[in-house]
Amino acid sequence: PSDNSESEASIWSSPGASWCNPREGDILSFSGITPTGSWTRPDRGFRFRVVGWGDVEWKRVITALVEVGYDYVLSYEHEDPVMSREDGCEKCIAFLKPLIIKAPLKKVWW
Fold first, then answer.
1. Which of 18, 56, 66, 87: disulfide with 83, CB 3.0–4.6 Å?
2. In this predicted model, which residue has the larger pLDDT, 14 or 83?
């Protein structure tokens, strides 16, 4: 990724996978790592985890979405191999709720 990835509102999607610019929808780089093996294997290339339990910096993701004007749904898909759907959904909501920006700044006032 370039040094100005923050200003480009780039999102780190997952470790070793790709950088994406949400304004353009372009993948800026790709590592070539392909996950293989059982989804529940702990030493797998990556494992899907409940929001807040993995490596994604969710404050950066939500900030980037707000910066490009996204104002719609945050959807959660449960594929965590460790916890139940009920636990995962509860933990996802508890983690994301305080991060939601309810009133984005429309214009800088200073």
1. 87
2. 83
Three-class SS of residue 13?
strand
pLDDT band at 15 (very low <50, low <70, confident <90, very high): very low
Of residues 103 and 34, more confidence is placed in 103
What DSSP line would sit under 27-68, residue for residue?
EEEE------S-TT-TTSS-----TTSSS--HHHHHHHHHHT
Indicate whether 43 belongs to any domain.
yes
pLDDT at position 63 over 60: yes
Alpha carbon of 100 to those of 86, 96, 109: distances in Å? 21, 6, 21
Residue 64 maps to a domain: yes
**C-alpha distances out from residue 68 to 4, 27, 33, 36, 57, Å:** 16, 16, 28, 34, 17
With tokens 């460790």, the residue in question is 82
Q: How many domains does the chain have?
A: 1
